[in-house]
Design goal:
The protein has helices at about 20-25, 35-40, 55-70, 80-85, 95-110, 125-130, 140-155, 165-170, 175, 185-210, 235-255, 260-270, 280-285, 345-360, 385-405, 450-460, and strands spanning about 15-20, 75-80, 115-120, 160-165, 215-220, 225-230, 295, 300-305, 320-325, 325-330, 335, 345, 365-370, 410, 435, 450. By secondary structure, the chain is α/β, with parallel strands linked by helices. The protein binds 6-O-phosphono-beta-D-galactopyranose (BGP).
Length: about 475
């Protein structure tokens, strides 16, 4: 509907931005940190290794001061599992605990609420070598990791996210460097068994959070893109429902209701890939209730009916997926694209928020949203990223409209607070409000510069988005 009466965004709205440990910290093997799968993966040709990144590990004070200058009310960052448990289980690394304590305290010094993602694509390599998420014992390892965090940080951290983009770990793990399916006979069986273990780990971690930290709130953080049918042909609508179920609802139906989505279940039956479920598993799923839903949104997806047979096509987080017999990706002719080919769809953002809210009725926080681009540092130290301002402005407008329509939104944390390394497209794909002076391979001086979007976002926060 066309909205004439807009409601104001609440004063307690959590404005901030996001990062993840393996993409921003650097210092990947120092001070006792064990390697993660990201440290041993072969990075895509032409992209940087992940050993320095934005060097947040050494520069967090300066970076958090800049976030405070923008007026952040929250900062979403992840804890590197292998920094605090170098082997994923067993001995705790005191230097790792100290680092995150410092980051948390630095945030609180400025009144910034830490929003911690427990796991963001960086499984400890030691656990990977034992079978990764395929081994059932990893559920207990994750719960132990959660417990270590609750014990050490829970006195100060009120907001927690379990697993970043569990749906992308399942659907695009090969692209983001979290899984290797070479030689696997039935990849669906493997991936959805791993997914089942992650869902159990998440449910247990949510329950433990409520038991140990009664004042805290916890939720999942999938990547949600509403899926459109390419046309109004009924079969295209069925294809869109298929991909919506596979990409989006499987994860949230389980996190919120503790139930497997029936369309996905049927898809798994068709592929001889239903996960092995042990007695009691579904009770565990039902016991883990999220307090809110965190979700990453970059764009919608569009698909058409596809009755062919054959191999699935692998996409990245936002593009290219096709599953013969289920759906085929379709380039939406109504949308512009970023320089890196991701579609831009602010209206679809609102459609996604509406749909999620009517399905789950929980408050929501946007844990990622943003535009990757080749930014240019000018001779005068400025970065004119008006394209990013335009992208963010148009998405924040849609939050205001969704809020007016009764959707409960708790906060907005675009990707990313500061430039960092992309999942598979290197340092040149920048997202930050803060520019980091390094190139793909030349580390230069790593100095920080405020982009035009930095000043713009500061104003947005100051006015609670009354001035956009
Ligand atoms: C999300 C991930 C982030 C991130 C972002 C941008 O899928 O949660 O880790 O990097 O997408 O993607 P990319 O880095 O591929 O541009």
């Amino acid at each position: 509907m066309v909205i004439k009466k807009t409601k104001k965004i609440g004063d307690d709205f959590l404005w901030g931005a996001s990062t993840s440990a393996y993409q921003v910290e650097g210092a990947n093997l120092i001070d006792g940190k064990g390697p993660s799968v990201q440290d041993v993966k072969k990075v895509p040709e032409g992209t940087s290794e992940l050993d320095v990144c934005a060097d947040f590990y050494h520069r967090y004070k300066e970076d958090i001061a800049l976030m405070a200058e923008m007026g952040f009310r929250t900062f979403r960052f992840s804890v590197a599992w292998s920094r605090i448990l170098p082997k994923g289980a067993g001995e705790v690394n005191p230097k790792g605990i100290a680092f995150y304590n410092n980051v948390i305290d630095e945030c609180l010094k400025y009144g910034i609420e830490p929003l911690i993602t427990m796991f963001h694509f960086d499984l400890p390599q030691a656990l990977e070598e034992q079978g990764g998420w395929s081994r059932r014992g990893i559920i207990d390892d994750f719960v132990n990791f959660a417990k270590v965090m609750y014990e050490n940080f829970g006195d100060r951290v009120k907001y927690w996210l379990t697993i970043n983009e569990q749906n992308m770990l399942t659907l695009a793990g090969e692209v983001i460097g979290t899984c290797n399916l070479q030689g696997v006979e039935n990849k669906y069986k493997k991936l959805y068994q791993e997914n089942h273990h992650m869902l159990l780990a998440q449910a247990k971690a949510m329950k433990l959070c409520h038991d140990m930290l009664p004042g805290a709130k916890i939720g999942p953080a999938p990547n949600i893109s509403l899926v459109y049918p390419a046309t109004c042909k009924p079969k295209d609508v069925l294809a869109a429902q298929n991909f919506n179920a596979i990409r989006n609802w499987l994860y949230l139906d389980m996190a919120v209701y503790g139930e497997y989505n029936h369309l996905v279940w049927h898809f798994l039956e068709e592929h001889d890939a239903v996960p092995d479920i042990e007695p009691g598993d579904m009770d565990i799923m039902k016991e883990g209730h999220p307090d809110f839903i965190g979700f990453n949104y970059y764009s919608t997806a569009t698909v058409e009916w596809d009755a062919s047979e054959g191999e699935a096509t692998l996409g990245d987080q936002q593009s290219g997926a096709a599953e013969p017999g289920v759906f085929r990706g379709y380039a939406n002719p109504n949308l512009l694209r970023t320089e890196f080919g991701w579609e831009i769809d602010p209206d679809g953002f609102r459609a996604t928020m509406r749909e999620m809210y009517s399905r789950y009725r929980l408050p929501m926080i946007v844990t990622e949203n943003g535009l990757g681009a080749y930014d240019k540092l000018e001779a005068d130290g400025k970065i004119h990223d008006d394209y990013r301002i335009e992208y963010l402005r148009r998405h924040i407008e849609q939050i205001k409209l969704a809020v007016s329509e009764g959707v409960e939104m708790m906060g907005y944390c675009p990707w990313s607070a500061i430039d960092l390394i992309s999942t598979h497209e290197g340092m040149v794909k920048r997202y930050g409000f803060i520019y980091v002076n390094r190139d793909e391979f030349d580390l230069k001086d790593m100095a920080r510069y405020r982009k035009d979007s930095f000043y713009w976002y500061k104003k947005v926060i100051e006015t609670n988005a009354e001035e956009l």
